Amino acid sequence: MTYIPPGASCNVCKAMKAQLNHWYMIHLNAERITISAFNMNDVEHGIPCVCGEACLIKYVSKHLSAVVYPPSSDAEISQILADTINRASENESESE
To answer: Model pTM?
Structure first.
């Protein structure tokens, strides 16, 4: 078995790296997600790693949710709700 220095743990489930199989690195930027084979040098540079496909999917899904559907402020949510209620009221009035 290949020696893995301490410090390599899954960014999702926190499992510690013990073998070289099925681990992935996830390189993120504003426009792209790149998945590559495990590399200890990347871990030492702060690149996220995951222990398998299930954790890979969870990590990418969480990242995409934050990018595609960023959290809204309370004021924005209140305005969306108010607009929705107003439209529903207007549609009811028109149908009567």
So the answer is: 0.61
